[in-house]
Amino acid sequence: MELGNKIKSLRLAAKMTQEELAAKLDVSSQAVSKWETNASTPDIYTLPKLSVIFGVTIDELFDLTVDDKLKRIENMFMQEGALSDQTFQDTKVFLFDQLESYPVKGRIEGLIARLYHLRMEYDSEIVSKYARECMEKLPSDMESNAEWLLQKAEGAASTDYNVRNHNKTILFYKKRIEQAPEVTRNYLELMDNLLADHRTKEAWDVLDRYRKLKDSSEIRSRIYELRISFCEGDPAKSDECAKALLAGYSDDYLALFELGGYYADRCNYEKALMLFERSYEAETKPRYVDALQAEAVIYEILGDFDKAAKVQERVIMNLKDEWNTDEGAAIDRALAEIDRLRNMSTTG
User: Fold this and answer.
1) In this structure, which topology does domain 3-62 adopt according to CATH?
2) Concatenated DSSP letters for 34-85?
3) Which of 60, 123, 196, 308 could serve as 56's disulfide partner, Cβ 3.0–4.6 Å?
């Protein structure tokens, strides 16, 4: 239904004349008449007033389909920072309403997970901020559990095995592999979590299974051979794997990125920076900013906050030039990082 027809339908349902609606909106009755015949449309500032008068949402005024609304939600996830309580609640109610009826199974579940993750991400920033302030102002306090809160908010390391292990996630991916053995991504995620727990023997077994898959990647196979060898504490073997990977895939952005991570883990930051930069240059536009973010982290580790801030400026340039993004959460995060790094440069 076109917007004009929707306005007319709602006006008649409310038993209201064109003149009465015009008076409530402070417009002429001729304007309302033109809307209802689709000769013109209300301006953007009138839409919220119409929604209040008729007791409907702006989305309902436009009679958007479910798929239209889902697409808008996906776009919101890409652009928005912290969601208002009302936006979160409205989105949650709509998604849960679609949970059982939407024909494509799994899509709504994925959006619900992203909705809650977005809120969790920004709530975690608040937890981190105030847990840090608590620890600074009450350094001897043990009652607030600020250290534990900081650990949970930032994913910080824990001394407790029962806290830091990833067995729950490992069991999930093992089950996924048994249920869908052809999905290659599950093998990679399983190896990542096994390596986080130093369960290298199992990781080798998973790598062997991965290599036998029709859609397996030789580059990724070599990357995980490198990572498992490094995790086992065999620097000679892992260095050999790294050299072979670089020799065979010197122009592949993924191989270069993973090699950058390997040398960063070995605290060879100069080589890591070179490889991350090569990875960024090798990627086809529009490029992701992961390699740049890695460079910024290394410069901060080295105490060169000015260079770290300049890399974040490159992140913003990338988002603007290659992704046509002038505003939104990604830009806001990069700007916040620049402010933080420049403040550290002047104070430290």
Assistant:
1) 434 Repressor (Amino-terminal Domain) (1.10.260)
2) HHHTTSS---TTTHHHHHHHHT--HHHHHT--HHHHHHHHHHHHHH-SSPPH
3) 60
